[in-house]
Amino acid sequence: MEFNFSVPQQIEVGRGAIAKLPEIAKKLGGEHGLVISGPHLNKMGMVAEVQKYLTEAGIASDVFCDVEANPSVTTVQKATEKFTDCQADFIVAFGGGSPMDVAKAVAVVAKYGGDITEYEGAHKVPGKVIPMITIPTTAGTGSEVTAFSVITDHSRDYKLTVFSYEILPEYAILDADFIMTAPASVAAACGIDAFIHAEEAYISTAASPFSDAMAEKAMELIGGNIRRFVANRRDVEAAEAMMAGSLFAGIAFSFARLGNVHAMSHPVSAYFDVPHGVANAVLLPVIAEYNALADHGRYRKIYNDISPIPAYEDEFEPYMLVEAIKDLNADIGIPANLTEAIKQADKTGTITEEAILEKIEPMAVDAMKSGNIMVNPRSSRQEDIEKLYKKALG
């Protein structure tokens, strides 16, 4: 058995932990920060709250709050221009996975120049990047502790991934107060995304005892609390469990990678703008059924973490997990299938079922480019991925 790991970040966890932001910024030697966030958090006054902590400590700051869901190459370019123009020397990523993805991309491009597309793939970042502090406002992506930045290239209808341990944020602040204002739909999509990070890492062929430990605790925390958290985001115990679970899941998949769910969900978001967590959730039961053939005893652990009724070894069948996932999705308001998810995301109301079917093949081509396919427990060819997409359509 051979494996290795390193968790080089400083992570502050706890309600009120945001008060440590100035101290952390000073440790980085920061004098002028750029807060990267989204328009909703800005309108709520939460970005201004973050700035206030910096201002009161004598640290200047500017903001870039135009980060959209599934952020684009263009957004990275604009945010990098803002960073350069205001002469910032560190970045605060405040929000869900999208602001963190943009922050990581800006940290690369602002330091080394060029376009983020030039860093697509693994280990193409030449060295240390602009210092970053991440403050998640959702319990979902785990992006605060991952070495990935996922950016949409609309010129290709493709979600590119930058993978490098150089883009790991140096500090993360996990303050549960920030996730307790999320709408139920956001809590559900982000929460199931975090669970899938842990689940895919747990069954990955690249899993190790270290990633297993992180994944197992993540599934326990998220599986036992996601229904409570979606039902009541002011449930402090559930909120803190979801935030810690998301953190552990992020660490798990940083070392074990993911699988077919994430490989297939990225094209869905790129082509149809379906929220990442929703795309993952509707694909999960289909992929779980596909992967059941390769299960070697791990499905029962996953099942017991999400099912209200535990199953003992002598009574468990892998396909029970598929039904448990469907039940969980229904309980937290996830669309029943991929067609429904795409229709919900269609702001124009013009996407037909024929148009969806036309994208199956190009989506499968894109999915096969993902390194996650290689560590999925059951091997997959393009024709398998196409069949899985069609089955997920319902």
**Approximately how much helix is present in the residues?**
40-55%
- Distance separating the two termini: 41 Å
Class from secondary-structure proportions: alpha/beta
The string of secondary-structure elements, in order, is EHEHHEHEHEEEEEHHHHHHHHHHHHH
The parts where pLDDT drops under 50 for at least 5 residues are none
Query: Strand order across the biggest sheet?
Result: 1-9-6-4-2-3
Estimate the mean pLDDT confidence.
92
**What's the β-strand tally?**
9
The main sheet comes to:
6 strands, parallel
Bin the strand percentage. 5-15%
Q: Based on CA inertia axes, which overall geometry fits?
A: globular
- Please report the number of helical segments: 18
- CA-based gyration radius: 20 Å
Jot down its keywords.
single chain; alpha/beta; 394 residues
Helices, strands, pairings?
Blueprint lengths: L9 E4 L7 H7 L4 E5 L2 H5 L2 H11 L3 E5 L8 H13 L4 E6 L1 H16 L8 E2 L9 E5 L11 E6 L4 E6 L7 E4 L9 H20 L5 H15 L2 H6 L4 H21 L3 H13 L3 H16 L7 H8 L12 H13 L6 H8 L7 H6 L1 H9 L3 H4 L6 H11 L2
Parallel strand pairs: 1-9, 2-3, 2-4, 4-6, 5-8, 6-9
Antiparallel strand pairs: 7-8
Helix pairs in contact: 4-5, 6-7, 6-9, 6-11, 7-9, 7-12, 10-11, 10-16, 11-13, 11-18, 12-13, 16-18
Short description:
Helix content is 51%, strand content 11%. The chain has helices at 21-27, 39-43, 46-56, 73-85, 97-112, 184-203, 209-223, 226-231, 236-256, 260-272, 276-291, 299-306, 319-331, 338-345, 353-358, 360-368, 372-375, 382-392, and strands at residues 10-13, 32-36, 60-64, 90-95, 121-122, 132-136, 148-153, 158-163, 171-174.
